[in-house]
Amino acid sequence: MLLKLIGLVIPLGLDTFAVAAALGIAGLPGRDRLRVSLVFTAFEMGMPLIGFFGGGLVGAGLGNAADYVAIAVLVALGIYMLWPRHESDDGRAQLLARTRGIATIGLGISISLDELAIGFTLGLLRFSVLLVIVLIGVQTFVVSQLGLRLGGRVGEGIREGAERLAGIVLALLGLVLLAEKLIT
After folding, report:
1. Is 23 in contact with 152 (CB distance < 8 Å)?
2. How much is the pLDDT for 18?
């Protein structure tokens, strides 16, 4: 169970680090680091809750097939994170670095869609929602601060590698869950 929890939370941290590093590369002023970290944390803690409740409603309608749908969402999310999307990430990072208010909310939603998908799978994994949300919040704040501070130094290659590693881990977690379902 602990390995599944780590397999769920760590990739989200890698993805957050990648976006925060892009902001650091884009030259986010030091005075905005706390604001951006708090925006990331709020959205990345809130989206799994929305996904959890939405997944519960969908799961009730799907019955036994809900487990397989949740696994498919997890694998699809992993594959999506492997897909190259350089320009959109950099554009988002530069936009977030300059925006405030409603634009920041829109960008916050766009960077936390992977957590929405994770929320759908929480029921399948049978984790405490509160525990997962707290862990996601802590790791988001820590890795966003690291990414923002190190972004200008680590460069584009490490940022992209972190995103790919996150995608691989999420896809593998989905495949492990599928194997467990098929074996039992």
Report:
1. no
2. 78
